[in-house]
Amino acid sequence: MRKDLLAVLVIVSIVLAFSKTSCSPLTKANIITSSTNGEYVLSAGYLSVGRNKTPFIAFVPPDRDHMYAVRINTIFITYLFNCKIFGKYLYAVGTVYIPSSLSYDILLVKMTLSGDVIWAKTFGGDKFDAGTDLVLLPNGNIILVGNTYSFSRLGDADVILILMDGNGKPIKAKVLGTMAYDDTVRKIKRMKDGNYILLGETWSYNVSLSDAFLVKIDNSLNVLWSYSYGGSSFEEAADLIEFESGELWVVGVSRSFIMGGNDGFILRLGKYGNIISVVGIGWKGDDGFLSIAKGKNSIYVVGYTSIRESAGDPLVLVLSKNGSISQVYIFAHEGFDTFYTVNVNSGHITMVGKISLKNDTLIVVDTKELANITSIDLYTQIHDVTKIEFLKVKNYENSIAKGSWIGRIQPLNITSNIQLATHTIQVTIDVSRVPKKVLAVYKGEYIKRVSFWEQLREVLEANVPIVILSIPFVIFLVIIIALKVKKILSKLLEQQILDQSQVYLRDDHRIFQIPFF
Question: What is the pTM of this model?
């Protein structure tokens, strides 16, 4: 996340003149995130028209017949990182450049599903601030979460929480962070007890390696608890589910496992934050888990995988409620593709993501049984996807590894009553209707071929501690064998010398054979 923020700072420092051309046709759509509440499908990103980049959101109604692409027009540089639908309204959150303060503020736009802007407001300070997610409270208030440099004590990123009413008027705001390096938030989720959990990462223990970061708050922004979890390298929490017992399953991305590159992780936590277990799943390249959902009898995890090495594919895991993996599926396609979210509603599974070629295409999979998938829905104005394979992975057992992580109570510095600068800005939108394309999938199985040497390497990597501990014994054994061989060779050499030193008498001639030294 820290690198992502720095990259955004570099990008947004270049002033771009936005084109006012129509939203159709699109030169290129770049999807940053997608989500679903079980009914509507949502997406956010930016459109590239020549050198210009314009933010957009898109939503697909429950009938899935078409997609509405909504182009957000402002006179300032704008990036959107998320969007949500609550009731009859759509909310888009991100960051926008404010010329008067030469800074980037959190942007929140509220609009109707028919495309009318209700209001657009900014919140921030004198540096870089960005919103990443929001929730609507039962009383109509909003909690918006994001990352701030403006109100950080040390100048690194901290988490900002803003409680506002339904009209976007701030009620209170807080900043949460540690005294060392970046702390960032990716998502906020409502729990069964009416409180909320923030998911993200903290760099509080190492500037180059982060831990998964979880903070529980109430609807008044009071911190109830905060924990960090991690192994020997990088971790970031992306999503979680809660069971009736209070147990939490957290998914995300980690570099602490042996498979190579990034791997997806499933972290099981007890009611009070204690680690029950953690496993990583991955292959040689980059893999990650971005969303998790609970069904009646199974748990579904989605993300991306490098199992085919030549490309990144959308990944689906099916787990039993004891945590064991029962099925693994991929949607094979060239390019880097991913699922961003999975939702289970009344036994109906919805997965949303993107497929990337020259253009990012929004993909939606609706099904009651994964094994019965025969097609997927595509939403784009540039149709360059012609073939997708839906493959069941057969030999994934060697790609699962248990982790040994540390869970810590994370001390936080909390700054209350911060002075937010709030502005109302003018926003116009262009709406275009994009038809759905149904693409049949080719079904099959994927069996990863592994050579003997790759298997040997994986065994050695999986048993690094055993290999290290056995090195002294192996050295001792080699020395013993070498001494034995030396002794045997010495005896053979002595016998050869005796044989060559014999005096032979033949036909009255004395022949002395002198050994060669």
Answer: 0.81
